[in-house]
Amino acid sequence: MKGECLCGVVQFTAPESREIGACHCGYCRRWGGGPMLAVHCGAKVQFAGTEHIGVYASSDWAERAFCTRCGTHLYYKLLATGEYFVPAGVFDSSDFELASQIYIDKKPPYYEFANKTPMLTEQQVLAQYGVSGD
Length: 134
Ligand SMILES: [Zn+2]
Ligand SMILES: [Zn+2]
Prior knowledge:
By secondary structure, this protein is mainly beta. The protein has one domain: Metal Binding Protein, Guanine Nucleotide Exchange Factor, Chain A (Beta Complex), CATH 2.170.150.70. It is built from two helices and eleven strands, in the order βββαββββββββα. The strands form two sheets. It has an eight-stranded mixed sheet with strand order 6-7-8-9-4-3-10-11. Strands 1-2-5 form a three-stranded antiparallel sheet, with no helix packed on it. The structure holds zinc ion (2 copies). The site of one zinc ion has 7 residues, from α1.
């Protein structure tokens, strides 16, 4: 699957995947202005135009990257495993399905997705993955 940032200087290729996870945590909402809708792409994502990728260490275990020219959010990456979570909107394809929602207990009341998905609270996420979302 291919994608690129708004201005096109950063392009990438990721393995095929259809499932989107929504994260309602405060870090994702502050970063993006709303919940993050991301595709779990694994560690094998290849980028071109890496000189235009800015990286922000958002916690001891993860970093968030963006295009330094146009500001497009490129990924959330878990440092321990090298796994990328890439916002669904930066892919050329829109053949995705909202499969899960995490940090549902951190979601503010002003929006709600109509999609029927499993929903995990922060506690359940920590129990399942052993890491925090920020
Ligand atoms: Zn750009
Ligand atoms: Zn989050």
